[in-house]
Amino acid sequence: MQGRIGRIFSDLFSKLKGKKKFVSCHWLEHGIIFDHANIIRMCCEQSHEGKGRYILDDKFNGIWLDIDKIKSEKEILKLKVRNGQIPSCCKGCQFLKNDYWDDKNYFSHVLLTHWSNCNTRCVYCPAVRDNSLSDENIYNIIPIINQLYDAKMINEDTYFSIAGGEATIYPEFDKLIYHLMTLGIHKINFNTSGIKHSHSIEQAIKDNIGEVVISIDSATAYLYTKIKGTNTFQVVVNNIKRYLEAQQIGEKRVIVKFILIKGYNDNNKELLDWFMLCLKLGVKKLAIDIDIAWFNEFEHGYPNYVLDLILFAKHMAKINNLDLDLYDRASMVYNSYKANKKYRKLFG
Ligand code: SF4
Ligand code: SF4
Fold this sequence. Notes:
Layout: H1 2-16, E1 20-24, H2 26-30, E2 31-35, E3 39-41, E4 55-57, H3 67-82, E5 97-101, E6 109-112, H4 126-129, H5 142-150, E7 159-162, H6 173-182, E8 187-192, H7 199-206, E9 210-215, H8 221-228, H9 233-246, E10 254-260, H10 268-281, E11 285-290, H11 292-295, H12 304-319, E12 323-326, H13 328-347
Parallel strand pairs: 2-6, 6-7, 7-8, 8-9, 9-10, 10-11, 11-12
Antiparallel strand pairs: 1-5, 2-3, 3-4
Helix pairs in contact: 6-7, 10-12, 12-13
The structure holds iron/sulfur cluster (2 copies).
One iron/sulfur cluster (SF4) binds at residues 25, 27-28, 42-43, 45, 50, 52, 89-90, 93, 95-96.
């Protein structure tokens, strides 16, 4: 009941602020991605029918951003959703939701992934598969951040996600993070291999303004090396410990991830061992996803045991009082299971 009343007030508040209700998503409305190869995108979502990753600019010079061009590219899709049409790139995307959206121009979500090299070679990495990890086309993003800030396209409430390649190996990395902090940015998500410790990540965790996601995918040096291509299991475990030590009591800012990979770790034993390792380390928040190439094979439905593994992880998290996030593809499998269950309940 309270939830319903809360929703009524929130809807009323949104209407008073001039927002309108229609199906859209936060990346479509207010998102921007600085991707590899001088490409600017609207989002990086690609596990659905429409395949997402809409290109806003494919010739960004890395020096000055044509904000008006980006705005007008986005306007085309924004107009569509305001007219009740789903853009073809968004078809089937789980991030679409019927909600209240404003008409203002700003970025609430920024993903920096304009570098592509890495200090490991994961078997599931699309860039490793394409042999496209390189130092080419890297530019200094700090002046672009300043340009966006001065144009009031971002502010201290903007959510920043930092990915790559591996972000920590680039010389500008710590400088960039401290610069974001100086601007008052207080929601920063780091995706890192965890091989190189970063004092700016540690500081962001300490200050409660950042969270780090490390995909270790295993619980033994043997399996880790097989999956990641580097013999750095213990280094990563030690860095997870260092980040956990920086975390304030009650916070959940160190997230350890497990990507399910066919033929490597797609069984209860590996999942349970990873779970026990995380428990031993004192990790409070976990995440699960599925290798994108494997997921793309699920055209005619996912194997039942994939769902069983996800349900097993959810159960383990629940009885151990840990948070578990299901990332993109794991969430799609789980949501389709839930939808089927609801359908069966309704129609037998
Ligand atoms: S593909 Fe999905 S995440 Fe990307 S803009 Fe469309 S709805 Fe949003
Ligand atoms: S850590 Fe990320 S960028 Fe590096 S190889 Fe693995 S998936 Fe690719």
